[in-house]
Specification:
Structural class: mainly alpha
Largest sheet: none
Number of strands: 0
Number of domains: 1
Strand content: under 5%
Length: 87
């Protein structure tokens, strides 16, 4: 009787550990999804949107200025909002 009770307890501990690990993986996965979403937004902003706007409003030399402005804006956004959002 005790032997079976021990096996049930050990199995219950293993099942609980697996549930905890799975819950941790879900939380970690959610945080990573948020992180990669933010990083993709910053990449689009600094590599495509800001250079396009820089070239449109500043002429041919605005492409480089757009990259620089995009990078600075992304860094400011990351250090003010991004870290807090990702958690």
């Amino acid at each position: 009787m005790q032997k079976y009770l021990m096996i049930i307890c050990v199995n219950d501990i293993v099942v609980n550990k697996k549930k905890i690990i799975n819950n941790y993986n879900i939380v970690l996965s959610y945080k990573m999804d948020k992180f990669w979403s933010v990083m993709i937004f910053y990449a689009l902003l600094s590599c495509f949107i800001m250079p396009f706007l820089g070239q449109k409003f500043m002429g041919p030399g605005g492409l480089e200025k757009g990259y620089i402005m995009g990078t600075v804006i992304c860094m400011l956004l990351w250090f003010t909002f991004g870290k807090k959002y990702v958690g």
